[in-house]
């Protein structure tokens, strides 16, 4: 695989170090110095440009990673798909659902392999929770509770993520789309969507907090809060079954050591049997996600984190914004 990265900010830089055995052929950013920084540090010595069309026009490059501001994601990805490239698009994929539906149509028409950057699925504690659920360790599922947030930084409300011309939404989109995707992955699609998004602290038009209550057709419920007024960075996800509970805490770094805890309800009730798995060290979710993308391409399968999954998440997001 020959990979071109369009968008060499924080996420693009991280992606450039997590390409497994693929070769990096291009680094592109409208701020050329960003492309220079990423390219100069990479062993493959990729070509550099500030024009994303250069990357797509290169016949040698077969795979594109699009990690730009939200307003550019869909347009660049659509051009790459139409050119026959494999594409990994960072969340949230688009600024509106019309763009996303156009991507799905183009993907189907061109038989393209297109993956959405939902890397949270590949955190080891989350994968452990998925395995426990698949093994029916906690019995029939009932509900899920999740909290995800950070405290921003000085000037956060002046960064591009607070600019409605560049960002697709506020905190509901920024971190909320990850939690919505995980909730759907664990519980299924949601038919009843309640909640609201609000701006409580930051001097910005976009939301800094969102509160959601989602329900599946078979009455499984997900309750969640996402926030950028969480003064201590937090990731907490609890899944409840009739025979126990699975809890995932931390994402490494400022979010704390990542761990998965299994609480199994004894038949006599009382204190649960508890098992803890901890995953200290480097965040490997980006590399594991890219490896799965490589498998998608090799066997020509629609990725598990697909454009259709993103559309389901966006359906929830739009309903919350409509209610707000």
Detailed description of the structure:
This protein is α/β, with parallel strands linked by helices. It has 2 domains: 2-112, NAD(P)-binding Rossmann-like Domain (Rossmann fold, 3-Layer(aba) Sandwich); 120-283 and 313-323, Dihydrodipicolinate Reductase, domain 2 (2-Layer Sandwich), CATH 3.30.360. 33% of the residues lie in helices and 26% in strands. It has an 8-stranded mixed sheet. A hairpin with an 8-residue loop joins strand 13 (258-264) and strand 14. Helix 4 (70-82) runs parallel beside helix 5, helix 5 packs antiparallel against helix 10 (307-323) and helix 8 (176-187) packs across helix 10 (307-323). The protein is globular.
Distance between the termini: 44 Å
Cross-sheet strand order for the largest sheet: 8-9-10-7-11-12-13-14
CATH architecture name of the largest domain: 2-Layer Sandwich
- Major β-sheet profile: 8 strands, mixed
Number of helices: 10
- Tell me the name of the CATH class of the largest domain: Alpha Beta
What ranges have pLDDT less than 50 throughout 5 or more consecutive residues? none
Q: How many beta-strand runs?
A: 14
The secondary-structure class comes to: alpha/beta
Summarize the structure.
The protein has 324 residues and is of the alpha/beta class. The protein has helices at 10-16, 32-40, 52-57, 70-82, 97-110, 124-134, 171-174, 176-187, 285-299, 307-323, and strands at residues 2-6, 23-28, 47-49, 63-66, 86-90, 114-117, 141-149, 192-198, 209-215, 221-227, 234-241, 244-249, 258-264, 273-279. It contains 10 helices and 14 strands.
């Amino acid at each position: 695989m020959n990979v071109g990265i369009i968008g060499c900010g924080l996420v693009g830089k991280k992606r450039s170090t997590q390409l497994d055995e693929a070769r990096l052929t291009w680094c592109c950013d409208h701020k050329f110095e960003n492309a220079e920084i990423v390219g100069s540090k990479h062993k493959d010595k990729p070509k550099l440009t500030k024009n994303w069309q250069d990357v797509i026009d290169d016949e040698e490059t077969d795979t594109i990673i699009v990690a730009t501001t939200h307003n550019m994601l869909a347009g660049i990805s659509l051009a790459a798909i139409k050119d026959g490239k494999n594409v990994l698009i960072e969340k949230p994929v688009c600024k509106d659902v019309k763009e996303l539906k156009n991507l799905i149509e183009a993907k189907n028409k061109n038989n393209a392999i297109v993956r959405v950057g939902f890397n949270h699925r590949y955190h080891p504690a989350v994968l452990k929770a998925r395995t426990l659920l698949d093994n029916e360790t906690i019995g029939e599922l009932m509900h899920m509770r999740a909290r995800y947030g950070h405290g921003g930084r000085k000037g956060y409300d002046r960064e591009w993520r607070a600019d409605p011309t560049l960002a697709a939404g506020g905190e509901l989109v920024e971190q909320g789309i990850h939690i919505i995707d995980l909730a759907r992955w664990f519980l299924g699609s949601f038919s009843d969507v309640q909640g609201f998004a609000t701006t409580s602290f930051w001097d910005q038009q976009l939301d800094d907090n969102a509160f959601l209550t989602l329900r599946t057709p078979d009455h499984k419920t997900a309750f969640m809060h996402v926030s950028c007024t969480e003064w201590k960075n937090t990731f907490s996800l609890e899944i409840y079954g009739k025979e126990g509970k699975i809890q995932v805490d931390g994402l490494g770094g400022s979010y704390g050591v990542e761990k998965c805890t299994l609480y199994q309800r004894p038949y006599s009730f009382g204190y649960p049997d508890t098992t803890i798995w901890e995953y200290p060290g480097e965040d490997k979710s980006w590399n594991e996600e890219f490896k799965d993308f490589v498998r998608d391409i090799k066997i020509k399968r629609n990725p598990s984190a697909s454009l259709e999954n993103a559309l389901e998440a966006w359906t929830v997001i739009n309903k919350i914004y409509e209610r707000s």
